[in-house]
Amino acid sequence: xxxxxxxxxxxxxxxxxxxxxxxxxxxxxxxxxxxxxxxxxxxxxxxxxxxxxxxxxxxxxxxxxxxxxxxxxxxxxxxxxxxxxxxxxxxxxxxxxxxxxxxxxxxxxxxxxxxxxxxxxxxxxxxxxxxxxxxxxxxxxxxxxxxxxxxxxxxxxxxxxxxxxxxxxxxxxxxxxxxxxxxxxxxxxxxxxxxxxxxxxxxxxxxxxxxxxxxxxxxxxxxxxxxxxxxxxxxxxxxxxxxxxxxxxxxxxxxxxxxxxxxxxxxxxxxxxxxxxxxxxxxxxxxxxxxxxxxxxxxxxxxxxxxxxxxxxxxxxxxxxxxxxxxxxxxxxxxxxxxxxxxxxxxxxxxxxxxxxxxxxxxxxxxxxxxxxxxxxxxxxxxxxxxxxxxxxxxxxxxxxxxxxxx
Length: 407
Ligand SMILES: *Cc1c(COP(=O)(O)O)cnc(C)c1O
Ligand SMILES: [Zn+2]
Prior knowledge:
The chain has 407 residues and is an alpha/beta fold. It has helices at residues 41-47, 88-94, 113-125, 138-150, 164-172, 184-198, 209-225, 242-256, 276-281, 306-315, 325-339, 345-359, 381-388, 398-405, and strands at 4-8, 15-16, 36-39, 84-86, 97-102, 130-134, 153-159, 176-180, 201-202, 233-237, 265-271, 319-323, 368-373.
């Protein structure tokens, strides 16, 4: 990996050999010393000779940027290369020029597949045969799929109240799914203890330094796909904060290398009941470590990547907002009704966030906005029914339909 120079600790400056398996800087309590992967961009620039013509078969178009060895066997299901769609009807409702990057179209239905592909590739290259993570649901499903694809054993820890669809999916992929009677934060702590005890490879959000790096490809793609008309804003929901951090890092790299001229402002959206990153960014006195929202994928009380997420908001000149569960559900229905895009609650949260940001004067009328839909709605039918209403029951005769619609 001659394009990866070092793993650096942002707290104390200590650096580590990127070829070894290490998670966080041992000089600090717990998992606070999250290592940052640093690159030699001259090497990357030499190697990356792809046309930025918008034709993106999958994220491995950007292999030169990813922290895997040149001869590594890539574990892939075709992740990335997701479309950006114009969203004129939604834009008219929100008063902005609107586009959607639909990352719910990834192989297991979630943006996380980008990172999982990199993590499983690295686990395999390191000769590991068991991989683990803690998850609010989607990371488990994603890891299950890629572990199966790579022929690795997968053991995952999820809060036992995760939506059924998200528990069923990794079971089908053959993973051991351990439903922890507790919150995501408790499942996370348990998975760390287990990693220490057994030495399994850990894909956890934030502590695995390579995890965010895979998510940079959503930023590379956004930069490439908007090369002629960079949006004013790119909007992500935030749980642990890795997606927005990775998306920003990728976009900024393309601007630093002069592949694109401009960068957007990043808008981070959290649920009102799980708002620790927002509270930190806005300098609130009180940062409640609670996770009370039906948007399970962003139900994180103690985000592991607050620092990198705030850096993304800060460097880009962006901002953050919070939205209620009712607003998230309304946004899920609006997105489906106006544009035919089916998102889970955390995937629709950016739409609610745009509405709030318009009301607060953060986003101005007519500005151009790309919302990243991070996850597909098919996994969580229960929330979807709450968003969109119930099925009307009728008898199998014409009279019932006439009664409903008239002659
Ligand atoms: C994990 C997830 C998020 C949050 O991503 P973070 O990197 O934890 O901020 C948002 N939406 C969906 C659908 C997710 O699965
Ligand atoms: Zn350190």
